[in-house]
Amino acid sequence: MAEEAIVLNEGGVLVSAASMTCKGKAFALADIKSAKVLEKAPSRKGPVIVAAIGVLSLGLRVPPLFAAVLLVIGIAWWFLQKTMYSVVLAGASGEQEAFTSKDSALVSRIVAAVNAARGGKS
Fold first, then answer.
1. Sorting pLDDT into bands at 50, 70 and 90, what band is 121?
2. Exposed site from 3, 81, 107, 118, fewest CB < 10 Å?
């Protein structure tokens, strides 16, 4: 039996001419109608609430250090949150997220590899 041509083997994801495997789960490319990137921005509610409490605490009888700490925590939390990117595969049974990462370039390479292995069909 001939060995399958590997299109991509990176970040725990293997894309060959016949399948995509990640997290121990295999997806047959014949069953995939399309692959796309899904971008999920993080919720900013938590950091905004913490920072707002810090700012509002400045006008109350609260130690200024406490208010400043809350403000710094809220701002740091905001900047430490990262957008998540997913590989979404569409098939006869609907869409499913096959792989998720903070690395947009990796997810884009995986989607490009899946589409290339499928023969350029989108």
1. low
2. 3
